[in-house]
Every structure is written in structure tokens, then in C-alpha cells.
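User: Could you check the structure of this?
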Amino acid sequence: MEFALTLGILMVFVLVIVDLGRVAYTYSSLHNAAREGARYGAIHPTHYSQIEAATRRLTAGLNQNLLSFSLTYPTTSVVRVTLQYQFTPATPILQLIRYGSGMITLQSQATMRIEQ
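Assistant: Sure, the predicted C-alpha cells are below.
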């Protein structure tokens, strides 16, 4: 009887841990892609479409429709790549933590000096 009562709680706990692992994987992928996109932009600052393509290639495991890409030049010698991703958790507990919105916005940004 005790096992039957604790099994549900244990399964929810395991699913939350798996979902948090998915969040960590997604954020790590975004961070790496933003850094590599900024690096590509530092070498080729005038090739906007190629910078975006190089960045999106590194996020191949993510839904590209939920990924937004932004390239800015804060100064003439700096390039900044910003990525935002709308992550949908599999467990309802993480959705409740975000006030029932159903999605968590993950963002990563990288800035590098343009090489000339």
C-alpha cells in the first residue's frame, strides 16, 4: 500500500528531473550556438545570412520555428548574437512554476570583437 502511494510521487519526481535535464541541454545548445555565431560574425561581419545559418546549424536538435535570432552591432568593432527559444516542458509541474504559461523563454547572448 505504501509503495502504491509513493510510486506516483516518485514518478513525477523522476519526470521533473528529466525535464530539467532537457532545459539544461537546450540552454547549453543555445549558449554554444550564440558563441559560435558571434565568432563567425567576428571573422565575417558583413555576411548576415551566413552568420545566421552558422548559428542555426548548431541548434539542429531544436525546433527552428521556436528559435529567434538577432544580430546587432553595438559599436563598429563589436558583433552581438542573441538567441531566444520557447521551451515547452513535458511535465505540468514546470508549467505551473511559470504561472501556467506553458512555455519557458530561454535566452543566450554572445558578444565578440570584430577581427580586422
